Hints:
The structure is a homotetramer. Chain A is of the alpha/beta class. Chain A has one domain: Rossmann fold (3-Layer(aba) Sandwich). In chain A, 40% of the residues lie in helices and 16% in strands. Chains in contact: A-B, A-C, A-D, B-C, B-D, C-D. Chains A and B meet through helix 6 and helix 7 of A and helix 6 and helix 7 of B.
Amino acid sequence: MTQAYDTRRTAVLLVDPYNDFISEGGKLWPRLEPVAKEVGLVDHLRTVIASAREARIQVMFVPHRQWEPGDYDTWAHPNPTQRGIQERHSFARGTWGGEFHPDLQPQAGDIVIHQHWAQSGFANTDLDFQLKQHDISHVVVVGVLANTCIESTSRFAMELGYHVTLVRDATAAFLPEMMHAAHELNGPTFAHAILTTEELVSAFEAART
Amino acid sequence: MTQAYDTRRTAVLLVDPYNDFISEGGKLWPRLEPVAKEVGLVDHLRTVIASAREARIQVMFVPHRQWEPGDYDTWAHPNPTQRGIQERHSFARGTWGGEFHPDLQPQAGDIVIHQHWAQSGFANTDLDFQLKQHDISHVVVVGVLANTCIESTSRFAMELGYHVTLVRDATAAFLPEMMHAAHELNGPTFAHAILTTEELVSAFEAART
Amino acid sequence: MTQAYDTRRTAVLLVDPYNDFISEGGKLWPRLEPVAKEVGLVDHLRTVIASAREARIQVMFVPHRQWEPGDYDTWAHPNPTQRGIQERHSFARGTWGGEFHPDLQPQAGDIVIHQHWAQSGFANTDLDFQLKQHDISHVVVVGVLANTCIESTSRFAMELGYHVTLVRDATAAFLPEMMHAAHELNGPTFAHAILTTEELVSAFEAART
Amino acid sequence: MTQAYDTRRTAVLLVDPYNDFISEGGKLWPRLEPVAKEVGLVDHLRTVIASAREARIQVMFVPHRQWEPGDYDTWAHPNPTQRGIQERHSFARGTWGGEFHPDLQPQAGDIVIHQHWAQSGFANTDLDFQLKQHDISHVVVVGVLANTCIESTSRFAMELGYHVTLVRDATAAFLPEMMHAAHELNGPTFAHAILTTEELVSAFEAART
């Protein structure tokens, strides 16, 4: 699949690159490790971000809420994942697990979106607004998890009128069948392009010339 | 799994019950038929709606855009499903396929939400607003397709702060593995309850007393 | 005030040009007539739309809900305007008052947005989505009423990231002090440009060359 | 005007109680002082919040973005107010002006909503979501400025399906005619109740019994 990008109208959305998810020693890393290693997750995230920076494509960090004491306690109906976070304290503010992976840190010119409470980086945040104020029409959604935050962020992006690209080896999930669902069953119904990192980098390079 | 409902705060969202989807002779029926027959889709939809009416639970119809000539033609980037509709003319206004199934017709007191362009019944419609004006906190999302419109409507409902129930045999999809993805892989991350029609009806009956 | 427009990225949003509002004999015309005649409302709306068409600028109709029997009756809290419509049946579907002014009819290529229930043309409609699918970044908001639908649509447009232009003599209100509030007190805090029809037409003409 | 509240379904939204706005020495205080003193702004805000706490009504802080270096610099079209903040550095993070008034500090059980970029506390924040997760149907919107953030937050609240109360002497503006516009011209079209602090306190006291 080939796809053309206008570097001034495209953004890479890097979702939840927390140590707790993608770094050895992270709270959720043991569940993610098999798929993450099989697809080369962290290497590919480094490659996608480096390629975007070389092409002067906007990078936006789209972070989940960093857990704080009291979170979700007064809510009428936290979802199953949020009830899990209440116990596990995933991405806790002030801890190593709640920091971004050391190779995936914001740089000058990047934009860090408001934290999302659940799965979609658009819900209850300024992501749509920041995309408009930076004149972005095309989003490339990478990071974790393929079938939760990446998929919900991408489903919302499509409903909001954006062109959506998924990158099948710049994401991961707890089970291989979740990757299959994200990229073979569901993604093809809402995403405009589903690429490999290699294909994306070629497209970004082509867009630079 | 048991789940309690307040009949005054609950709504059943019936998504896309078009002849083209769920009736013999419909344009998409051949793709849906195997799963629909296996789960007893139309029987269960009849049962869910009848049970809701007996319990005086609000029923809302959540319909996809009825295709009209020119639809999507000037859009910057219709999604893959929309490009398919451009060719197939699914749910065309003024045709039998674009009518609701004869046993699933709106009655006095039901609310028909504005038509959605893509998968989520919340996106670009008055669904959230109508739920608030009717003081609904809990939504039960039934109809088709399990992994597209039902799942996107439910993901949005959760992000908007609603309690979300899926009903595993009151929906269908093109492939059994799409049902598995919707109810075993993805649903458990965002839905507050995943029931069978029988369990839902018991809960509605319990709520009436 | 001068303002430059890219004709491919600009849309004119024509809000609520119903006979009940802006035509002699309309239900609300007697309240609007003094200001409407003073500013030359209908003439200026004709001029704005004609100028947009000549420049091939997208025109979008942004209509209020056409009243139907039962509207608002089951709502928890209709707003004061909606309670008025329940009595007056303004913009009733199937009546002359619920039709657009004869000189302000949609033409091929125009887009008619879903009907809004209250004041903002963005709330509970597909307006934001249609703007994105047509790659619009700048909106010019004209029609009625200056301090209700025009102002709420414009406040929403700014919050959603659009560039917003008001046109002080292509709108009207029930009282002169409402016009003053819209254009001298409130508009300057959220609108990016506040022009006269003459200034807008000059800007559109300049954009054509 | 009398209005009844259910204490479990009501929230007070306290918008932008920053020193820069409402405290002597604040950057914008000189422009606000005449109206603020005339209506007794800070005294009435203290009274509203104290009354809400006694009735166990949820208090939510709805803060504007605290200015940081770089804010708005890369945006396509900041609005006139935002361009002013770029120069004035109003509500700068880490400064006294960017702190809440000492008598209007969050307490245990209060909720602090994500910061808004412009006027509406709902736009690009988690306000709607937090209201739903706390089962709130009625909002009382107080703080500043009457015709910008209070009015936009209230217009959005109505469009989102909430019952909206304005409090005419628990807000202020730069000019008396802006107060007139907010409470006599515009508010009556979208707000369900417009009270004085005294009337609100009586209603809250009645709701406690």
